[in-house]
Amino acid sequence: MDTAPDGRSQRDRMLAGDYYRADDPELVALARRASVLVQRYNTTDAAEPERHDALLRELLGTVGTQVVVRPPFYCDYGSQIRIGDRSYLNFNAVLLDVAPIEIGADVQIGPNVQLLTPHHPLEPEPRRAKWEAARPISIGDNAWLGGGVIVLGGVTIGADTVVGAGSVVTRDLPPGVLALGNPARTRRRLPS
Known about the structure:
- This protein is of the alpha/beta class.
- It contains four helices and 20 strands.
- Helix 2 (25-43) packs antiparallel against helix 3 (49-59).
């Protein structure tokens, strides 16, 4: 296992939100495990809902009851993803879970949505050396992310908030609002 100058493993650095190297053998093995499970999930016959559910529960950190994730679905590690009861993820969801991704209960996620926790240094040398870090994402209960929404790391989306299709969320959004655009901005409060 590769360690950083402070003696911590690359995995420990990643989980702490510090810069780490994703090419560390331990992280590569964890990503490979997830990749195998993702491939199995994405190719399991839809007529086998119990198999789908079992694979999803093996892959992800926490899966609530009555959760639907339509394949294809993609993630980095899976273990850092928590999905609440009755949430729905449509086709082609990409959840890069280098940092934790929390999806509340009754959340609706449209097709082609990306939740992207990793970020890279702006300076060319650390980027060339393959250093990266990540910030968590949290989606509140009963939020709805329209098709093609991109959410960047470090963002919290409040409960009952709706994010319009194609929006890019770069900052926190409060509960109960409609947000649109690139970058997404609050347009109005929604009726409670």
